[in-house]
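Quick one: structure tokens for this chain, please?
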Amino acid sequence: MQSSRHKVLICDDSPLMRQVLRDMFTDGGLDVVAEVPDGALLLDAVREHRPDVVTLDVEMPRKDGISALAELMEKQPTPVVMVSTLTGHGTSESVRALSIGAVDVVQKPALRLTPQAWGITRDELVAKVITACRAHVTRTSAPRPATAARPAISGDLASRAVGAGAPLVIIATSTGGPRALHDLVPRLPAQLGAGVLIVQHMPVGFTKSLAERLDRDSALTVREAKRQDTIRPGVALVAPAGSHLEVTGPGMVRLSDAPAIGGLRPRADITISTAAQNAGRPVALAVLTGMGADGLEGAKDLRKAGGTILTEDERTCVIYGMPRAIVEAGLSDGVFPLDAMHMALVEAVSRGVRRS
């Protein structure tokens, strides 16, 4: 008789750490179906044991976790949670793993924990693994050439976008977002004709690496938003983890240390609602993959202000939560698979520039 409990495969080169993880997952009601000590063994183990989720270390002999993850996502797409000492400080390895397709990252637990700390760490690990089990992961597509064609806005429209009426694009996402952003943002043209604000739920320290990686791969300039910042066409500002990003006026944003809402800071609702109230220009919102309903209340305000609201299709979402909330509330102006979202945003911006 098969167990109905979620099945986990652990990949870590430390026998002691594998034991700690196995005990935590078993204690949390999960079934550990296999353990492997090296990334080179991961693909065959996944094909043999068919786990619901894989936990994967970064630093391992023969084949590191990043290389193993890339191979897995290409040949046997499976939900993965990265568990490593490298993932607690927002390192480039964490963001790289998330952009390749890892569902989440967690700090590797200490080998010696008090009973109270054990319970807290176990609960975090188990919760993220269970969430990952529900994720829809797809085969990683081949990298796009740097010269890949992108939809363009005419020079006339782009030149008009430097004024106070230039449209604003907001992208809101959570679980699965780094990979979605790495698919969407590099497709947007340098002459987009709009400023871009990105709200991605991530731990403190991660968003700087995310912005740097997006900037490296994109025609747009991408960077973390600063305390008092300006919105400019062709520039994408990423809300720093640990701060809300508010639109205070046409072309202006600020960071807020207000308390987290629903455990989230930044909260997309705040960015969207303040944009609806203060942007003074057409606003296009794209809600991508993510758990929960962040963005829904903001979308209600944006609808009243006449903004455009686009949502990612369920078929391409890792977690169909945030877009579902918008669609079920009847607020979506269009549902698009991820590989078409850039075209929908360019069209929305073009309409906004023409109205300005």
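The mean pLDDT is 89.
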